[in-house]
């Protein structure tokens, strides 16, 4: 036999073996055999806060009947990959963090970024120069420096970067980090003002694209890898704080002709570009305009969205998330910001705030979202600092007069997802038989299923968990959330 023939046979055998291994791996079916169900619970009017409350066994199931309440999970049917859950380290968060004692700083970082001691955040959003959450407005260049010769991230080195670096260390040395601008420098805009809207002037498109690359390189030089960037925070809102407006066509053309090509030219073509970064109400239109242009779409990883469409008095529009995913299944979805507005210290423990998180996270994940990011991880006892008075809630507040940390119910509700669903998990098929409960499920890479169940009613609910031909009987308290790991 000739040498070339032996090589061909060897290659064919190797490919066949690889194909069989891959096929076998794909065909492995989830089984409930010998599986325990670990139950963790948080509920209003109880002491339960991510508390281990039960350890159950599966039993053989029968046909469920209409008078029973059931949660159905099918682990062998999978959907989107899970990227992570996290929050934003803003100037406000970093400024308050710097005022804490070393012990409280360590407590806060562990509370968010440790999987053992806290809720295991795995991603982080930050800002490209200032947003409203901070003590003042600033950029990285001298005003009027169109050539960016004075570019420096020194303003971030006092508070924000040290906090980010410590968060990365607590998270195990890796924290998916992405950055968003609120406004270009004033001289680059039609209004000559970073605040109150305005539009980027065409003569500064290239310089503004260069600004992103300088930021990314500067942060990475500091040891903070940047996964990606969104084009603009809330591009259709004229805010009293830093803001800049882009129509769908304007964002499309800026990405296609400037931001995408510039990142690629500067050796940053692997950085992800996230479009929209605004509310669910108009996300479908933005996706249609940008994704229908192949020259723009090729630079775009996916679409980011917020939950503030409720400012109109409407409910959260989860259906639009689903419609974007249905229309563009190869593009990704990321929730990039949400917080409870109109801070009121009397409502630190207001349970409805936490349930807003639970409802949003369950529905966003069920509709195809791959990653979910809260807004500020830390604010003070006034809901700031915010240089335009836009005070809001965070999951954890610090009372700077006492040095104490205040944990809100929202922290625990987010933790029911972030602590148990691991990066690279896959969402699995699940459903509930009553609208009294809502639920989502994922399967981690270790083969364990994580099911999150929420009860927003005034009464405890008895329910059955059905997985394949097995079931378990459980109860969830009134205004409670549970995570089942099995």
From TrEMBL:
Leader sequence segment: none
Keywords linked to the UniProt accession: Glycosidase, Hydrolase, Signal
Family: Belongs to the glycosyl hydrolase 30 family.
GO molecular-function terms, A-Z: glucosylceramidase activity
Protein name according to UniProt: Glucosylceramidase
Domain Glycosyl hydrolase family 30 TIM-barrel span(s) in chain numbering: 84-421
GO cellular component: a single term: membrane
Pfam families the UniProt entry points to: Glyco_hydro_30, Glyco_hydro_30C
InterPro entries attached to this UniProt entry: GH (IPR017853), GH30_C (IPR033452), Glyco_hydro_30 (IPR001139), Glyco_hydro_30_TIM-barrel (IPR033453), Glyco_hydro_b (IPR013780)
GO terms, biological process: glucosylceramide catabolic process
Residue ranges of domain Glycosyl hydrolase family 30 beta sandwich in the record: 424-484
The keyword Metal-binding is annotated on this UniProt entry: no
């Amino acid at each position: 036999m000739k040498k070339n023939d032996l090589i061909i046979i060897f290659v064919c055998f190797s490919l066949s073996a690889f194909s069989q291994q891959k096929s076998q791996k794909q065909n492995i079916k989830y089984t409930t055999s010998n599986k325990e169900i670990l139950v963790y619970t948080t509920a209003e009017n109880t002491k339960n806060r991510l508390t281990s409350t039960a350890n159950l066994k599966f039993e053989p199931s029968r046909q469920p009947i209409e008078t029973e309440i059931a949660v159905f999970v099918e682990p062998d049917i999978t959907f989107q990959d899970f990227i992570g859950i996290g929050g934003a380290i803003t100037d406000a968060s970093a400024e308050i963090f710097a005022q804490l004692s070393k012990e409280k700083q360590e407590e806060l970082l562990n509370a968010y970024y440790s999987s053992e001691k806290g809720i295991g955040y795995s991603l982080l959003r930050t800002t490209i120069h200032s947003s409203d959450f901070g003590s003042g407005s600033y950029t990285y260049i001298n005003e009027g420096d169109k050539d960016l010769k004075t570019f420096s991230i020194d303003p971030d080195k006092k508070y924000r970067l040290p906090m980010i670096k410590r968060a990365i260390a607590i998270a195990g040395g890796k924290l998916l980090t992405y950055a968003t601008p609120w406004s270009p420098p004033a001289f680059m805009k039609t209004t000559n003002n970073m605040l109150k809207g305005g539009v980027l002037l065409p003569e500064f498109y290239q310089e503004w694209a260069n600004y992103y690359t300088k930021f990314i390189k500067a942060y990475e030089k500091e040891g903070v890898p940047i996964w990606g960037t969104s084009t603009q925070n809330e591009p259709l809102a004229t805010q009293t704080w830093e803001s800049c407006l882009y129509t769908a066509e304007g964002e499309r053309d800026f990405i296609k002709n400037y931001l995408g090509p510039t990142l690629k030219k500067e050796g940053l073509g692997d950085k992800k570009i996230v479009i929209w970064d605004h509310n669910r109400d108009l996300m479908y239109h933005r996706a249609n305009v940008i994704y229908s242009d192949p020259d723009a779409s090729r630079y775009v990883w996916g679409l980011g969205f917020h939950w503030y469409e409720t400012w109109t008095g409407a409910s959260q529009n989860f259906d639009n998330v689903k419609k974007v995913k249905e229309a563009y299944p190869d593009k990704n979805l990321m929730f990039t910001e949400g917080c409870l507005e109109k801070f009121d210290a009397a409502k630190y423990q207001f349970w409805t705030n936490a349930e807003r998180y639970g409802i949003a996270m369950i529905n966003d994940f069920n509709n195809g979202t791959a990653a979910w990011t809260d807004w500020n991880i830390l604010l003070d006892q006034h809901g700031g600092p915010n240089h335009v008075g836009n005070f809001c809630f965070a999951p954890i507040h610090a009372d700077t007069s006492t040095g104490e940390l205040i944990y809100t119910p929202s922290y625990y509700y987010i933790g029911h997802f972030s602590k148990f669903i691991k990066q690279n998990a896959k969402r699995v098929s699940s459903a509930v038989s009553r609208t009294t409960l809502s639920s989502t499920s994922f399967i981690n890479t270790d083969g364990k299923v994580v099911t999150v169940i929420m009860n927003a009613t005034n009464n405890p609910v008895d329910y059955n968990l059905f997985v394949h031909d097995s079931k378990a009987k459980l109860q969830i308290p009134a205004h409670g959330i549970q995570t089942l790991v099995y």
